[in-house]
């Protein structure tokens, strides 16, 4: 999934499942670091160039940067370190980093390696001067992967808060606002530590709206929120607040804010976002003669409810249709966990869609997380075809029952409908595609 190749322009009605799979691969390849980094390479500074980074795409971003740097300006030294999720590194796959160290840590829950990576990153920029350049490679997942609690907060307290935020279905904007104010590195604190060096931040966005400061909780970008905002979010969701966390937030020590002189020479650029993956899919699908409707690249809300709503939309669009239609959407939904099942937001979305369609003729669907990991499972997502409705009932699989237990992974695994890609080493969040074919006369 890391090479952009043209989609075979064949009739999707011939092999709709394979067509959807290939379309998803094409979309992911369009937002892989290999397709992005070479075009944005800066000139080397008078001083040193230090690379830091965190996220599920950080290792691939570092490898792409190294290759382009060595090809164009091999005389300029390059060094640094990035941290990515376990299994998302690139060593041993022909794209090793020689000058940038790649660390791995836990996601979505931080571990000791996450804290160690954060400390190393702060140390890596501490000795820089005004002639030096920091290139920060930031992508989704970085919040957990470099997790250093603010003074007075224990790692266990921070993990407990993070766990409850994920379970309650809070939107990512709120989750990251809290994370920034419980951290010693997020919310611009890494850039502040690098001052007076210039910081250039490149981002692969996994957040709806693509606000740069929200990606990985913005370690190199200023924070417009306040500790009081974080406290309000925790209280609104009824999350128990440990004493150390409450004391820290009540002290009202804000993160570096917009306008802070530490950011005066810095710059940032979002290199890839959900919209780019959807656009690549749109172009490829239209080349195959398929009509495309983009439903939005920043959709949020409860995953199953979005699936149900888009299912109703697909049913309405099918009536009287004479040519194939593709409904595309992206963003990041949430799952309010009420059961003890297995699953991520993409399979939960699909199960809500599946329940609504009830095997409607001609409607196929796919949903994946573009990083290759749906939630914390081993699948990227899943797909289904109309005939899966009868298959499910023949096996005694009731979608309502599985939804009640948040067990969509098990449901689609029983149908052999899971999509397992392994880490893609990029991350622009969810990619959802519903293929509506004309009814058979």
The value of Rg in angstroms is: 22 Å
The ordered string of helix (H) and strand (E) elements is HEHEEHEHHHHEHHEHEHEHEEHHHEE
Helix content: 25-40%
- How many separate helices? 15
Average pLDDT score: 92
DSSP strand content: 15-25%
What's the arrangement of strands in the largest beta sheet? 3-2-1-4-5-6
Quick one: overall form? globular
Secondary structure: number of strands: 12
Largest sheet: 6 strands, parallel
Overall SS class: alpha/beta
Provide a short characterization of the protein structure.
The chain is α/β, with parallel strands linked by helices.
Description of the molecule:
- The protein is an alpha/beta fold.
- The protein is 36% helix and 16% strand.
- It has 15 helices and twelve strands.
- It has helices at residues 16-30, 58-72, 112-125, 142-145, 155-167, 172-181, 189-194, 227-236, 243-250, 274-287, 303-318, 345-357, 388-394, 399-404, 408-414; strands at residues 49-54, 79-85, 100-105, 133-139, 198-204, 267-272, 291-294, 325-331, 363-369, 381-384, 418-419, 430-436.
- The strands form two sheets. Strands 3-2-1-4-5-6 form a six-stranded parallel β-sheet, with helices on both faces. A six-stranded mixed β-sheet has the order 7-8-12-9-10-11, sandwiched between helices.
- Strand 1, helix 2 (58-72) and strand 2 (79-85) form a beta-alpha-beta unit.
- Helix 8 packs across helix 9.
- The radius of gyration is 22 Å and the shape is globular.
